[in-house]
């Protein structure tokens, strides 16, 4: 049983938040189980260490409910985690009304009804909620395309004095000005855009890195993704996808040592297929030339549970953020971001996943510093 906890605030109680809550409850119920975990322990923090103490959403079917009930409300789907032995967590946490800003797009609002919002000072109220709950780390789960809202929450995290894990494809951790502000405050900023535990981006990076390492010229590549949850439905609003496409594309091309013309790379979400539910299917193709110019074509189809694939990474990011705060060494956030996220700071973006994981592992073991000035 964990005796050290990470107090987290959850921004957006969607499918990914549901998977994180149920996964945390799952590992609390089976503390000796390590299957499905990259890091069973992060310093003193076990896999059941996340303690949700605050949450925000805009959906009338979630706002005002306790967090455990809200996780299965509205458009949220079954994420495939066995429910039998789970002890509910977050039952004493009421989901608060979040500012909408640009966080609820046109397609999103076809499926949900916005809860009534307060007319007072939302910023001051949210900061007070964070402080009253004694949050350590905020976890951003806003929908794709929430540029203004993500920046608003990052700024709130700074003022409230808490860490910020940006799971969505809005560039915060990648930008020098944001990173410098968090570094000056002694707070971890980790992101951007979660790289799922064994998702299309990670697998695609492994493939193009293999082409480089084995001397194969990569001529062109694509990655197409379909799914049936609200994330994919929201992404039918194509105007919200610019940063998502940039994040996914750069994550793959950064792993290839050669040059690829823009017209020879196509990576991004492709369509919404409702009956898939929380299952995601990815189709990856790589075309290249090997010894003597001989053609090499590779096609892979990946089928994964979308939300648990994300939660298996966020559970590490949150614990590492808290350990960095405990140690007063928040510069490690760059290596965390390189290992766990698609769009880390540019200084580490082209490092291999293996190097990033080794640097992070060394730091977590206490045998080295972050190594970043």
Explain this structure:
Helix 4 packs across helix 5, helix 7 packs parallel to helix 9 and helix 10 packs antiparallel against helix 11. The longest helix has 22 residues. It is globular and about 65 Å long. Helix 6 links the parallel strand 7 and strand 8. It is built from 13 helices and twelve strands. It is of the alpha/beta class and 373 residues long. It has two domains: 248 residues, Rossmann fold, CATH 3.40.50.720; 106 residues, Dihydrodipicolinate Reductase, domain 2 (2-Layer Sandwich). The strands form three sheets. A six-stranded parallel β-sheet has the order 5-4-1-6-7-8, sandwiched between helices. InterPro entries: MIPS, Myo-inos-1-P_Synthase_GAPDH, NAD(P)-bd_dom_sf. GO terms for molecular function: inositol-3-phosphate synthase activity. It holds the Pfam family Inos-1-P_synth. This is Inositol-3-phosphate synthase.
Put the structure in a nutshell.
This protein is of the alpha/beta class and 373 residues long. The protein has 13 helices and 12 strands.
**Count of alpha/pi helices:** 13
Radius of gyration: 20 Å
Alpha-beta content class: alpha/beta
CATH superfamily membership of the largest domain: NAD(P)-binding Rossmann-like Domain
Distance between the termini: 37 Å
Biggest β-sheet, characterized? 6 strands, parallel
Mean pLDDT: 95
Structural domain tally: 2
Protein name: Inositol-3-phosphate synthase
Organism: Actinomadura darangshiensis
Domain Myo-inositol-1-phosphate synthase GAPDH-like: 199-307
Pfam families: Inos-1-P_synth (PF01658)
């Amino acid at each position: 049983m964990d005796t050290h906890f990470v107090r987290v605030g959850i921004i957006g109680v969607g499918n990914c938040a549901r998977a994180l809550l149920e996964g945390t409850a799952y590992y609390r119920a089976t503390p000796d189980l390590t299957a499905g975990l990259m890091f069973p322990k992060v310093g003193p923090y076990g896999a059941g260490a996340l303690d949700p103490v605050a949450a925000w959403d805009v959906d009338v079917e979630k706002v005002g409910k306790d967090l455990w009930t809200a996780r299965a409300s509205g458009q949220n789907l079954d994420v495939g985690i066995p429910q039998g032995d789970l002890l509910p967590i977050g039952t004493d946490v009421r989901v608060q009304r979040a500012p909408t800003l640009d966080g609820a797009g046109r397609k999103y609002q076809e499926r949900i009804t916005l809860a009534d919002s307060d007319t007072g000072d939302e910023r001051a109220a949210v900061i007070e909620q964070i402080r009253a709950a004694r949050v350590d780390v905020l976890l951003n789960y806003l929908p794709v395309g929430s540029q203004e809202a993500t920046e608003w929450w990052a700024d709130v995290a700074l003022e409230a004095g808490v860490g910020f894990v940006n799971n969505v494809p809005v560039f915060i951790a990648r930008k020098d000005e944001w990173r410098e502000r968090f570094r000056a405050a002694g707070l971890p900023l980790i992101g951007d855009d979660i790289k799922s535990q064994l998702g299309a981006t990670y697998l695609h990076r492994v493939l193009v890195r293999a082409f480089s390492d084995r001397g194969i010229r990569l001529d062109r590549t694509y990655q197409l993704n379909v799914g049936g949850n609200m994330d994919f439905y929201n992404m039918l609003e194509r105007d919200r996808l610019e940063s998502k496409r940039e994040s996914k594309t750069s994550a793959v091309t950064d792993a290839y040592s050669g040059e690829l013309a823009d017209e020879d790379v196509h990576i991004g979400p492709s369509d919404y297929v409702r009956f898939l539910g929380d299952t995601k299917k990815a189709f990856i193709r790589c075309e290249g030339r090997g010894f003597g110019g001989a053609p090499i074509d590779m096609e892979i189809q990946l089928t994964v549970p979308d939300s648990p694939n994300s939660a298996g990474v966020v559970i590490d990011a949150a614990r590492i953020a808290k350990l960095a705060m405990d140690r007063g060494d928040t510069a490690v956030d760059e290596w965390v971001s390189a290992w766990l996220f698609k769009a880390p700071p540019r200084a580490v973006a082209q490092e291999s996943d293996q190097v990033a994981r080794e640097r992070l592992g060394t730091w977590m073991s206490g045998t080295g510093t972050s190594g970043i000035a």
